Amino acid sequence: MTQDSKQTTFLHVSPVLASADVQKDVDWYKEKLGFTNVYDSTRYQDGPMDYAVVGRQGLYLHLQFQFPQDMISTDVKFEVKNIEPLIEEFVGKGILTVEKVHKKTPWNTTEFGIKDPSGNRITFLEDL
Question: Structural domain of residue 64, as residue ranges?
Fold first, then answer.
């Protein structure tokens, strides 16, 4: 199949999550979820970190500082293949209990959700 030059190709999506404390959230994503700090605002400005990009295996989340009155939590879902090692990793780090994993749901997934320090819900799921 040839690529139609008049058709747009979507490459990826980069959700921007509200963060009450970007540095704290970056540290949490690194320590708890195994993400890396790909880029943050300390590279181009002085003062506290107010924007960052964290990623794992080519998927990225952006974290942007929000004042408490402006905070809106977000729900982001990561679809993965072979979810069991991820479950074991997060249970081993103490951020997930086996009871919180929904196996073989009626909609044919295995999934679990975790809230980050700013209240955003991060869901990991495998389509069965």
Answer: 16-127
Q: Which residue in this structure is represented by tokens 């979810």?
A: 83
Half-sphere exposure (Cβ direction) of 71: Cα atoms closer than 13 Å: 13
| pTM recorded for the entire structure | 0.89
Question: pLDDT tens, 53-78?
Answer: 999 999 999 999 999 999 998 999 99
Total of domains in the chain: 1
What is the Cβ-side half-sphere exposure of residue 102, based on CA atoms within 13 angstroms?
14
- C-alpha 71/C-alpha 21 separation (Å) is 11
Indicate whether 2 belongs to any domain. Answer: no
Residue 37, domain CATH: 3.10.180.10
Compute φ and ψ for 18, nearest 5 degrees: -70, 140
